[in-house]
Amino acid sequence: MDHRLIDLLVCPVCKGPLQLARNAAGQPQELQCPADRLGFAVRDGIPVMLESEARVLDGELASPPSAPTLG
To answer: Domains in the chain, ordered, with CATH?
Structure first.
């Protein structure tokens, strides 16, 4: 999967950046949205960017940084 394509793709839910996750063989497995904690599968080199096809990530990513509080 071309890194330029990954840089152009955003989460279909929140429009935030995605991270590429690879399997043990180093092949692209899914694009992950840390903000929504969703994983979008990559099938035959094509990302499936449908919310209905996404899987919920269970603690696999670090939580996104929290917004600073004004005080």
So the answer is: 3-56 (2.20.25.10)
